[in-house]
Design brief:
Number of helices: 9
Number of strands: 11
CATH class of the largest domain: Alpha Beta
CATH topology of the largest domain: Rossmann fold
CATH architecture of the largest domain: 3-Layer(aba) Sandwich
Shape: globular
Helix content: 25-40%
Radius of gyration: 19 Å
Distance between the termini: 45 Å
Order of helices and strands: EHEHEHEHHEHEHEEEEHEH
Number of domains: 2
C-alpha cells in the first residue's frame, strides 16, 4: 500500500479562491495586525507567508516588529489596536520570549488566532468564537481525507491525537470531542504509546518532535496527519512522522512541509473574514 500524499498548497489555493468571493461582498477590506517579538528568522518568515496571502486577497496587513521590548510596551500597542475600529484581527507570532504575558491583552473578538484565555475557554465549552487556525486546518484536512478515502462516518472511527496537552493538541482534542467523535489523547509519557497509536484509524501528531511516529506505531491503512515540525542539524526540517516509511502503510498522509502549514495560513484568513461577518 502507498498512501495518498495530501497536497496542502493545492488545497489551500482552493480555499483561498473561495475567500476571494467572500471578500467581494464586504463593504470594506478587513485589516489584520501582526506582531513579532524578537528576531527569530523562522517566525518572521512565517509572518511573511501570512502577509503575502493577505496581499493576494486584498486584506490590509500591518506588520509591527518589536526587536527587544518590555511586555508593557507591546500591551500598549495591542490596546491601541483593540480600540481601532478599522482593525478586525490581531495576532502575535509565537513563540514569545520567556515571561511575556501579552496574549490576553488582545480583545477576544479580534483574537483570530484563538490564543486568549476567554476564547480557549469558549472553545473547550463547545461555544467557540474562533477555532485556532491549525486546529481548523487539521479538521478540514480530515474532512478532505474522508472524501478521498471514502472513510464513511467519522463517528465510527478511532482518532488518536499525540501531543494532546500542547497548544495545538489540547484545543484539537476539544474540537473533535465536541463534534461527537471518539478521540483518545496521548503524549510521549503515555504508557505503551505504540499500542495506543496503532489502534487508531486516524492518527494526528502535534508534538514538534522530529520523526517521533515510526512505521510500527501506525495501523495499516490509517489516515496520518502530521502537525509537528522540528529543525535538526542532521535531519533538516522534519515533521513528527517518519514520512518516508509511514507512507508505505498509511492510506492518506500529510507531508512536512507542504501539508498542514499552508492550510493553517488560509484558515487564519477565514477567521479574519469571519470576524467581519460576525
Amino acid at each position: 500500500m502507498t498512501a495518498v500524499i495530501f497536497d496542502g498548497r493545492a488545497f489551500a489555493k482552493e480555499k483561498e479562491d473561495k475567500l476571494v468571493k467572500l471578500l467581494e461582498r464586504l463593504p470594506r477590506k478587513p485589516k489584520l495586525v501582526a506582531i513579532l517579538v524578537g528576531g527569530s528568522p523562522e517566525s518572521e518568515l512565517y509572518l511573511k507567508l501570512k502577509q503575502r496571502m493577505a496581499e493576494r486577497l486584498g486584506i490590509d496587513f500591518e506588520f509591527k516588529k518589536f526587536p527587544d521590548e518590555k511586555p508593557q510596551k507591546i500591551v500598549g500597542f495591542i490596546n491601541q489596536k483593540n480600540a481601532d475600529t478599522e482593525v478586525n484581527g490581531i495576532i502575535v507570532e509565537l513563540p514569545l520570549p520567556a515571561g511575556f504575558q501579552v496574549l490576553d491583552a488582545i480583545k477576544p473578538s479580534k483574537d483570530v488566532d484563538c490564543l486568549t484565555g476567554e476564547n480557549l475557554r469558549l472553545l473547550a465549552e463547545g461555544k467557540p468564537r474562533f477555532i485556532p487556525p491549525t486546529v481548523k486546518a487539521v479538521f478540514d484536512i480530515l474532512l478532505k481525507a474522508t472524501q478521498v478515502e471514502k472513510l464513511g462516518d467519522l463517528k465510527d472511527k478511532k482518532i488518536c491525537v499525540v501531543g494532546d496537552r500542547g497548544m495545538v493538541g489540547g484545543p484539537l482534542v476539544s474540537v473533535l470531542r465536541n463534534s461527537g467523535l471518539e478521540v483518545s489523547g496521548a503524549n510521549t509519557g503515555t504508557q505503551d504509546l505504540i499500542a495506543t497509536t496503532r489502534s487508531a484509524d486516524i492518527l494526528i501528531s502535534a508534538t514538534g518532535i522530529g520523526r517521533l511516529i515510526k512505521k510500527e506505531m501506525v495501523k495499516p491503512g490509517a489516515v496520518v496527519i502530521d502537525v509537528g515540525i522540528e529543525k535538526k542539524r542532521n535531519l533538516g526540517v522534519a515533521g513528527d512522522v517518519d514520512f518516508e516509511n509511514v507512507k508505505e502503510i498509511a492510506s492518506f498522509i500529510t507531508p512536512v512541509p507542504g501539508g498542514v502549514g499552508p492550510v493553517t495560513v488560509v484558515c487564519l484568513m477565514e477567521n479574519l473574514i469571519g470576524s467581519v461577518y460576525h
